[in-house]
Write a structure and sequence with these properties.
Low-confidence stretches: none
Structural class: alpha+beta
Mean pLDDT: 92
Strand content: 35-45%
Radius of gyration: 14 Å
Helix content: 25-40%
Strand order of the largest sheet: 1-2-3-4
Length: 96
């Protein structure tokens, strides 16, 4: 899985980078199913999280979240992203 994490309009602090890496471990179970994961974080009075995920079989997903707190916004994003990955994984397993 190729990961791309970008901060737009600000620079990540070390604790934010560590938190992102820790949260991305939540979808490690699907590492072999994911080709690319692109995460963009923008700060403009609050944090905006935008993730695009591309799967091996050509499907893709796009999820967003926002919050005034970095950790809370990232948690919201990862909850939705984890659900999206599980749904796609279940779809593929049903077809087999």
């Amino acid at each position: 899985m190729n990961k791309s994490v970008t901060a737009v309009g600000f620079s990540f602090q070390q604790d934010q980078t560590d938190l992102i890496n820790k949260k991305l471990d939540r979808i490690k179970y699907a590492e072999d199913l994911i080709v690319d994961l692109i995460l963009r974080v923008r700060e403009d009075k609050k944090f905006y999280f935008d993730a695009t995920i591309n799967f091996k079989w050509g499907a893709n997903g796009h999820v967003t979240s926002d919050d005034f707190d970095f950790a809370a916004g990232l948690n919201k994003l990862m909850d939705v992203l984890d659900t999206k990955v599980k749904k796609e994984k279940d779809k593929i397993q049903e077809k087999k």
